[in-house]
Amino acid sequence: MLINSFTHRFTSDYLIYRHSQTRSTNFEKFISHAHNGYEIIYIVSGIVSYGFEEEEVNLKMGDIIITPPSKYHCLKVASNEDYERINLIIFPEQLHL
């Protein structure tokens, strides 16, 4: 069960910014999914398990991970601590570099 959850979000043609904080009373798992752009996740607080294809790694406060486009991944909250993250999804084809 999720309690005390908030999300701030900004979306444009080339970027999605999301800042989320969740307090969980049990271990929450997000479904496996993929994006059309690069996803950059910064762990502000808490501990999560990050699944990427056949690998799984624990992430903690201060860790950053970058997921390439079209790669399936998921997060699982690994403790009852507050979990807070900032993630960006960048769509390079929209940047016109």
Please write out the topology:
Blueprint: E1 2-11, E2 15-24, E3 38-45, E4 48-52, E5 55-59, E6 64-67, E7 73-77, E8 83-90
Antiparallel strand pairs: 1-2, 2-8, 3-6, 3-8, 4-5, 4-7
| Helical residues, percent | under 10%
> By helix and strand content, what is the structural category?
mainly beta
SSE string, helices as H and strands as E: EEEEEEEE
**Strand residues, percent:** over 45%
> Spans of 5+ residues with little confidence (pLDDT < 50)?
none
Q: What's the overall average pLDDT, rounded?
A: 80
Taken from the alpha-carbon principal axes, the silhouette is globular
Strand order of the biggest β-sheet = 1-2-8-3-6
Number of helices: 0
Q: Give the termini distance in whole angstroms.
A: 43 Å
Evaluate the radius of gyration: 14 Å
Sheet with the most strands, sense and barrel status: 5 strands, antiparallel
Q: Based on DSSP secondary structure assignment, what is the total number of beta strands?
A: 8
